[in-house]
Design goal:
Layout: E1 2-3, E2 15-20, H1 25-37, E3 42-45, E4 51-53, E5 58-64, E6 71-77, E7 80-86, H2 91-101, E8 103-104, H3 116-121, E9 125-126, E10 129-130, E11 135-141, E12 147-151, E13 169-179, H4 182-199, H5 219-225, E14 232-233, E15 236-238, E16 246-248, H6 254-272, E17 281-283
Parallel strand pairs: 2-5, 3-5, 4-17
Antiparallel strand pairs: 1-2, 6-7, 7-13, 8-13, 9-10, 11-12, 11-13, 14-15, 15-16
The protein binds uridine-diphosphate-2(N-acetylglucosaminyl) butyric acid.
Length: 289
């Protein structure tokens, strides 16, 4: 048993019955094979930055993806540069790699926590950038344990979502960036990071934005105007800095987090007639068996 609160940015989550940390692709294949043979359900987890795991934990296994983390330049073609990144590499490391080499395309993703695999699964984005826009192909392991490359254009990406299922593993990705100058890339990254630090409580434990933005408006703005800032249940609080961030003030639990989601979305619905949709993934059991 491994408490998932140790593996989520919110520091919330009951225990997983089985917890696996593959060292490399071969050990991942072995783990996958054994779980399948024993009929044990499993999910892949990166850094747990966009996820709420319920207090009853995970029935089955959690496979943590952090040890596969290599990033390397593959080739150049005209003004483009192609890079291979493992799924467990931190997105921040990939952004830093592109910054140091003067490659453009990921600037808006600076400051987003989590792994590349997690970012691809939820099509992370900010400031008009989305990770799908730089993806060429994905190396995936399917339910049968078969590894293959899939073209990014064959995967249904949408706003903060992808057609990738939780039991499919993203092993790595080929991405395409544009050649630029390190100073120009750094300057853009610096500006985005400054904006983020001003507008988001990035220094407190959270899972980023809790709700998706409804078409044409911002969930944070609606929550703010509905008077939700500072609303608290247990030790979960709607941030005073940005109303679409819920922060863990100490020892928060998932039940209180979900109750707070219900409370504030009801306020927004009453005030504006808009139903908010969760952006974070909610997984696990309410109570352990
Ligand atoms: N606003 C308020 N009060 C708040 C929050 C926002 O009035 O409490 C207003 C702002 O003043 C601004 C507008 O709402 O006029 C939009 O706010 P902001 O620029 O902060 O952007 P957002 O729509 O709230 C989105 C993404 C963020 C991303 C930022 C920057 C979603 C759900 N949120 O936020 O992504 O970092 O744009 O591009 O798409 C995330 O997905 O986890 C996330 C943090």
């Amino acid at each position: 048993m491994e408490p998932m609160s140790n593996h989520t940015s919110l520091r919330i989550g009951g225990a997983a019955e089985i917890f696996a940390l593959p060292r490399d692709l071969d050990s991942l294949k072995n783990i996958h094979l054994n779980l399948k043979k024993s009929n044990i359900p499993y999910i892949a987890l990166g850094s747990g930055t966009n996820i709420l795991i319920r207090d009853g934990g995970i029935a089955g296994a959690v496979v943590l993806f952090r040890s596969l983390k290599k990033i390397e330049t593959l080739r150049e073609e005209d003004e483009f540069i192609f890079i291979h990144t493992d799924a467990g590499a931190l997105l921040a490391k990939l952004v830093r790699f592109s910054q140091e080499h003067g490659f453009s395309g990921l600037e808006g993703l600076a400051g987003i926590p989590g792994t590349v695999g997690g970012a691809i699964c939820g099509n992370s984005g900010a400031f008009g950038y989305e990770i799908k826009d730089v993806l060429v192909a994905l190396e995936m392991m399917d339910r049968e344990g078969i590894v293959s490359w899939r073209r990014a254009e064959d995967i249904a990406f949408g706003y903060r979502k992808s057609g990738i299922r939780p039991e499919e593993f993203i092993l790595g990705a080929e991405i395409r960036l544009k050649k630029d100058h390190a100073e120009a890339v750094s300057k853009r990254i610096g500006e985005f990071l400054r904006t983020k630090r001003e507008r988001q409580p990035i220094w407190e434990p959270s899972a980023g934005c809790v709700f998706k933005n409804p078409p044409g408006t911002s969930a944070g703005k609606l929550l703010d105007e509905a008077g939700c800032k500072g609303a608290t249940i247990g030790e979960v609080e709607v941030s005073e800095v940005h109303a679409n961030f819920f922060v863990n003030k100490g020892n928060a639990n998932a039940l209180d987090f979900i109750r707070l989601m219900e409370l504030v979305s009801l306020r927004v619905e009453k005030r504006f007639g808009i139903l908010l949709e969760a952006e974070i993934k909610i997984l696990g059991r309410e109570i352990a068996d």
